[in-house]
Design a protein that fits this description.
The structure is a homodimer of 230-residue chains.
Chain A (H helix, E strand, L loop, with lengths): L3 E5 L4 H12 L3 E8 L7 H12 L3 E6 L33 H16 L3 E3 L15 H14 L1 H4 L5 E3 L7 H10 L24 H13 L16
């Protein structure tokens, strides 16, 4: 019998690659996405396309009222998404987001009898979010074993982060060998209602540079060509 | 300026007492409740009454789609809530519930600029849930500091658990001295739509015994008197 894994799928480039890796490692994948009040809700359509392309046993999209808490450009439309650059952790940081996402994944994993949770966090070409770092992931694994009935019965939950030490270019190269179609994915924080990327936010900048360094043509659909010039 | 605290308020006896303690310690309290698909949603009305009685700056009730995950008698109506007794962790355990609740509280605390989160977990007269134990709470505190922007800037989040080592009787006695009206609270997992308790579930049993041992008359409204006989 194949092992089960819960895979967090946002609709972006990293999580699509992570799902492809989990599939390649022969896991039966249970995809989990969140409608958390994000401005760029169009990414949920992308998550649907990605899970259909790569194949999952089930794909759940869970509603969580994170918007009510505010404090981020991604969930509060009074805070504009900035252009690339600036120092420190950007205003696109969503307080406790990955803690919440992993907590949900943990609950579902326990119900499914899965020990593995895959998350596409990356600590190389990323925005500096604290909840993407290896020490955060390790602390969550430790918590998971204490938090659950399964953990108290000896299950060693593992949070698998296959991308954590890779550059965006390496991620793209691996994803292409595993059949990921990046045209289906959306990374932009400002995507319009047709899913076209703005070309200037943090996330667009990192993604665009990834395709350049990977030596691969960028399949992203941008709003206008002129906005994507660096 | 008074310090702010996020206080998890379920509508039950423990969280009402915890809120009263946080108020007595001069915190400005921000109450947080969850509509997570629980069968006993009537407890949210109790949470409203309790926060009104004790006084909070704000009370937020957040919707989270935990019901979709299932695996618990409290969120899946195919699994009946059992009578008191039995070995091990009961089927009323909700996978990863306190991890999720604390993750939300952490996000809100960060937005508010609060360092303290109060939760009414108890490891003495309780149902054996793993996410009520001190080691779980300590692991969450550690995680909180790594998970957040505030933590990476030096904020030492504290998860305050004033009830963790107390008996139910001690909790009730302290709550009464702080002005908690327990008639407003609902502990029952099976409460009817008028908020009347079943008298036989785990939670009712522990609560009833607490009032007896505290030597205080039990203000709980039960469905029928005969059902409450032991």
């Amino acid at each position: 019998m194949k092992k089960k894994a819960v895979v967090l799928v946002s609709g972006g480039l990293d999580s699509a690659t992570t799902l492809a890796i989990a599939r390649a490692e022969s896991f039966d994948c249970y995809a989990l996405s969140f409608d958390y009040g994000q401005q760029h809700k169009i990414e949920l359509d992308a998550a649907q396309r990605v899970t259909q392309l790569l194949g999952v046993v089930e794909h759940k999209t869970v509603l969580i009222g994170l918007g009510g808490i505010g404090g981020s450009a991604l969930t509060d439309d009074h805070i504009p998404v900035p252009k690339f650059g600036g120092e420190g952790i950007p205003v696109t940081y969503v307080p406790a987001r990955n803690t919440l996402f992993l907590a949900f994944a943990l609950g579902w994993a326990e119900v499914l009898g899965a020990e593995d949770i895959f998350i596409g966090v990356n600590a190389v070409d990323y925005s500096g979010y604290p909840d993407c770092r290896p020490e955060f992931i390790q602390a969550f694994e430790r918590l998971a074993r204490l938090a659950t009935k399964a953990g108290s019965e000896g299950v060693q939950f593992k949070v698998q982060t296959p991308l954590i030490h890779r550059t965006k270019a390496e991620i793209i190269q691996q994803g292409l060998t595993l059949g990921v179609n990046y045209a289906l994915t959306i990374s932009c924080y400002n995507a319009d209602d047709k899913g076209r990327a703005c070309g200037y936010c943090d996330s667009c900048h990192i993604r665009k540079e990834g395709f350049e360094l990977a030596g691969v043509s960028d399949p992203t659909c941008y709003v206008t060509r002129s906005m994507t010039q660096k």
